[in-house]
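The following block was generated as part of the benchmark described in Methods. Ligand: pyridoxal-5'-phosphate.
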Amino acid sequence: MTDAPQTIAQRLQEVRGRLSDACHVAGRDPAGVTLVAVSKGQPAQAIRDAYAAGQRDFGENYVQEWQVKAQALADLTDLRWHFVGHLQRNKVKLVVGNVFLLHSADDMAGIGELARVAWSRGVRQDVLLQVNLAQEASKRGCTEAEADEFVQVLCRSPGLRLLGLMTLPPVEDDPQQARPWFAQLRGLRDRLAAQWQDQPGVPVEWSLSMGMSGDFSAAIAEGATHVRIGTAIFGSRTYT
Ligand SMILES: *Cc1c(COP(=O)(O)O)cnc(C)c1O
């Protein structure tokens, strides 16, 4: 690549261009894909710069880091926080009701705690069910086989609203190799939607949160409704 864009605004514009190209190729409306700018490891000022360039959806992975930034950016009242990392049970109360969408409902105990806290506060937290398609030990989420049970539990929890699925596929060298994983999540979504369509609380339109800096075009080709993009917007960071 020549002349990589330097500022956050330029990088953001470049990512938006690639996102709409991918939608065009897939015959999809770009309005159906939410770009979540994953700002972990980045200072509040970087988020402010992206906000100034029109970005509104931001993703964070670590509760303490997010809280510090949320405080520093409290004046940006229409900023939408997405929580995309594993949420420890003892931190659930800090997050429930304070994020627009939790992408990482990933185990039964955590979901129970989420539901309990949301119910006790009288709020309804929007969540995605994280699926560990390759059953990697290093990743969180239910298996495909467990997904039905998780969907039922989420739909029966009054404090939670299930909106769809999220995945973090195995790291591949070539982004095209990630595409079968995205197709698999889409297939799971189709199966779950058909299986549970009469169940109260089941999503009408299921979201699919999949695709990151290296592979979001392939994810869009397979139906991603949310892409989570960090380094392509903010540049490199010191941790994952
Ligand atoms: C860090 C992270 C991203 C963004 O990754 P990039 O490769 O920097 O785009 C997306 N999703 C999750 C869950 C992450 O932890």
